[in-house]
């Protein structure tokens, strides 16, 4: 059986493709390479440069590659950008997923694991957040993902063979244990990569976006989970998929760290000072997010390998210091 991985050239997708191949699966990757990297896709996977909105080409690939199940990562994923430019988020994420689901129906593929997000919860009324917490996003990125959740719910009600598992990621971080795959975003807006780029001297200081939140040190709190643990959850979800299994799971560690905790831990890991400058809040940022992972632990047997922020940042540092220009570093050397 072949697994179709959308967005398999991206940060999380590429780590997952590798785990699937190591587990003996046949993998076919599609990616439009808008923000993904062809170099991140292992040679063992077949690759097609296709956009999610190209329903007919997607259908052809699903038929010719004999796809049995889909793991759907491809998405635009910057909260701040989604506030200033919402339409590409609805087009690529929401409409793109409708196109993918239509291609799946055309080619009789009926099982999908979908990357959803804690951004669908908005500002939660309880911490840790459970899957039953109300969903009320505060930015277009979160809405673009919540609309997809509704579409998946509708498909599972209407199409008898259709089955999905939606994984609501909290803050994905870190890089592969051997430093071979990593995080390479342009522009880079995420906290840990920006701390490490400051440690490398690529920027003079870290900008902390808001220090007047209702938290102990005034900065936002997030639940950081290692990218390889996110991928192991996908492998478990893939095995659990069936038309009766359709549901959502949080993936996080249930522990929260403030922006300043992350800066200090990054200083310890790298041995470099990371100067900070405070700027106003970024629109669309909830003050505190952390996950209850009880459901995925109990029902799918998920247990994270990386449980300390220090270890997670260490893997990211191993990548950033050996790949200061991301995947371009290897091409240049
Ligand atoms: N931050 C800074 N300075 C920076 C970058 C980030 O202070 O240079 C702050 C942000 O304001 C936020 C925290 O650090 O408070 C974490 O920001 P990230 O951009 O690293 O991640 P987000 O919390 O925005 O992550 C969100 C959702 C995820 C979603 C992800 C997509 O929580 O579910 O965006 O990129 F997948």
Automatic annotation (TrEMBL):
Catalytic activity: UDP-alpha-D-glucose = UDP-alpha-D-galactose
Listed Pfam families: Epimerase (PF01370)
Record InterPro entries: Epimerase_deHydtase, NAD(P)-bd_dom_sf, UDP_G4E
GO molecular function annotations of the record: UDP-glucose 4-epimerase activity
Cofactor: NAD(+)
Documented EC number(s): 5.1.3.2
Gene Ontology BP, a term: galactose catabolic process via UDP-galactose, Leloir pathway
Pathway(s) the chain acts in: Carbohydrate metabolism; galactose metabolism
Keywords: Carbohydrate metabolism, Isomerase, NAD
EC category: isomerase
NAD-dependent epimerase/dehydratase domain ranges (all copies): 3-252
Similarity-based family: Belongs to the NAD(P)-dependent epimerase/dehydratase family.
Subunit structure comment from the entry: Homodimer.
PANTHER family per record: UDP-ARABINOSE 4-EPIMERASE 1, UDP-GLUCOSE 4-EPIMERASE
Protein name per UniProt: UDP-glucose 4-epimerase
Organism: Gimesia panareensis
Gene: galE_1
């Amino acid at each position: 059986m072949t697994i179709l991985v959308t967005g398999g050239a991206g940060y999380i997708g590429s780590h997952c493709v590798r785990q699937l191949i190591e587990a003996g699966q046949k993998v076919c990757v599609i990616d439009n390479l808008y923000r993904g990297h062809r170099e991140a896709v292992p040679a063992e996977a077949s690759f097609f440069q296709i956009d999610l909105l190209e329903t007919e080409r997607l259908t052809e690939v699903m038929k010719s590659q004999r796809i049995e199940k889909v793991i759907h990562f491809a998405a635009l994923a910057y909260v701040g950008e989604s506030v200033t430019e919402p339409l590409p988020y609805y087009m690529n994420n929401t409409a793109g997923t409708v196109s993918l689901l239509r291609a799946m129906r055309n080619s009789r593929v009926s099982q999908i694991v979908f990357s959803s997000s804690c951004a669908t919860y908005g500002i939660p009324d309880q911490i840790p957040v459970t899957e039953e917490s109300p969903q009320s996003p505060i930015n277009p990125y979160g809405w673009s993902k919540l609309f997809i959740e509704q579409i998946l719910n509708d498909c599972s009600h209407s199409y008898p063979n259709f089955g999905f598992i939606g994984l609501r990621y909290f803050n994905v971080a870190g890089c592969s244990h051997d430093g071979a795959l990593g995080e390479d975003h342009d522009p880079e807006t995420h906290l840990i990569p920006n701390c490490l780029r400051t440690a490398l001297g690529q920027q003079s200081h870290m900008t902390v976006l808001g220090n007047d939140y209702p938290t102990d040190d005034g900065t936002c709190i997030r639940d950081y989970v290692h990218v390889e643990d996110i991928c192991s959850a996908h492998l478990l979800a893939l095995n659990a998929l069936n038309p009766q299994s359709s549901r959502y799971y949080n993936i996080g560690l249930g522990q929260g760290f403030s922006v300043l905790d992350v800066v200090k831990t990054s200083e310890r890991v790298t041995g470099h000072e990371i100067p900070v400058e405070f700027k106003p809040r970024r629109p669309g940022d909830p003050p505190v997010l952390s996950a209850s992972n009880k459901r995925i632990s109990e029902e799918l047997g998920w247990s994270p390998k990386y449980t300390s922020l220090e270890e997670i940042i260490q893997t990211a540092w191993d990548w950033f210091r050996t790949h200061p220009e991301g995947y371009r570093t290897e091409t240049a050397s």
